[in-house]
Design brief:
It is built from nine helices and 22 strands. By secondary structure, it is an alpha+beta fold. Keywords: Membrane, Oxidoreductase, Plasmid, Transmembrane, Transmembrane helix.
Amino acid sequence: MKDNTITSAVIVGAGIFGVSTGVQLARRGIRVIMLNEGPPAGGASGRSLSWLNSSRMRSEPYHRLRMAGIDRYRTLSARFPDADWLRFEGGLTWDADDASNGIDAAYRHEVSLGYDARHLSAGEVAAITPGVDTSTITPQGAIFNPGEGWVDLPSLIGLLLKEFAALGGTLVTDQGAAKIVVEGGRAVGAETAAGNSFTADAVVLATGPAVPKMVAEAGETIGDATPVALLVQTKPLAHPLRAVLNTPRVAVRPAPGGTFSLDADWAADEGLRLREDGGHDIDRTIVEALLAEASKVMEGNPKLKIASIGVGSKPIPGDGEPVVGALRAIPGYHVAFSHSGATLGLIIGELLAHEVATGSEHPMLATFRPERFASR
């Protein structure tokens, strides 16, 4: 059924939030133009670990939102059961053997929420999930979450863009960065660096780590804790690991074609040096150290080889919680900015499109409004 509140929308950003929102609006019969500086999925969505989860501890509204996000992926997985870009084969997590170890507390918290969790000793892991070098699991044990999974966001974005085009949506790329056009106190469209203007009834800003700066240009504030992140993709390897691993020194996520995605905060902190032009030099010895850490936690300690290295900003709001919805001070201006873009990708698009199309606020987004930063 069509919504009559608006008839057109411009979306700036073709990562998972922008594309997901665009498809949802197009499904409602709204004319959508999507603008992206470069190719789709060329930013944070293209270098995301993309672990689908709601593990450990966070606010209850955020947990509910993440669980709804996982639910939408379950529905998608049922449509594409043989997809090599979306799998639900669990997640295994353990902490360092020191005072920071929070595995027991995390397990008890997850159980209290009804989140499927099993607290395993190292000796129990092999019978539950394959491919792990269990000698690296610390004495406090590990948590296995069988309902978790992973998605390859570029593959998903490609799938959604095919539907977007079939629904009449327009994708405009490679015209440089776009800026939101505000006239008479209202967002009325966007203009690309190439000088092309696009007008619409509503504008959605979904440019990942650039959102806080772009919003600031309109006089609004969104707290920003965005770091620089490093994601290493390996060459294909025959290996039995199926679960996503989150360990003290490395995260390892299976990927399409027998490859693996690896990341760790320490590797980004130690392995990247900012250049004067804003780019980063990569210390290859640190990258090799990251591959070695991944090998240690994988059964058989395989030799991992680099296929690609992704470097760039990882969107994280100042308080760690999503920032989604309208800027109340500027009618017609909506934003989507969050960590865990993969887990939230489908549900944020759905709920934000509901708000844009109907003009009514969705209760699941009540605590994630942009204006919460204005009073800080």
